[in-house]
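Lecture notes, continued. The same structure-token format from the folding unit now serves as the input rather than the output. Read the line below as a description of shape only.
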């Protein structure tokens, strides 16, 4: 399982304690890593000239 939390030590402690309380192993394996994550904004980029699919290329032309 993988999930993301905001940088909040109190919340992280509470989540780890909750995992320990309900996990079937005596010592569950928990790895905490700080990450920088991006997420798609769901924008319509159909006219954005910086996107590769809006540039000229052989993939845009059909074979004759």
């Amino acid at each position: 399982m993988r999930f993301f939390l905001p940088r909040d030590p109190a919340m992280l402690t509470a989540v780890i304690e909750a995992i320990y309380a309900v996990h079937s192993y005596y010592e569950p394996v928990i790895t905490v890593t700080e990450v920088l994550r991006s997420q798609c904004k769901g924008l319509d980029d159909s006219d954005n000239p910086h996107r590769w699919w809006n540039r000229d290329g052989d993939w845009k032309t059909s074979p004759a």
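Point for the exam: The chain has a mean pLDDT of 84.
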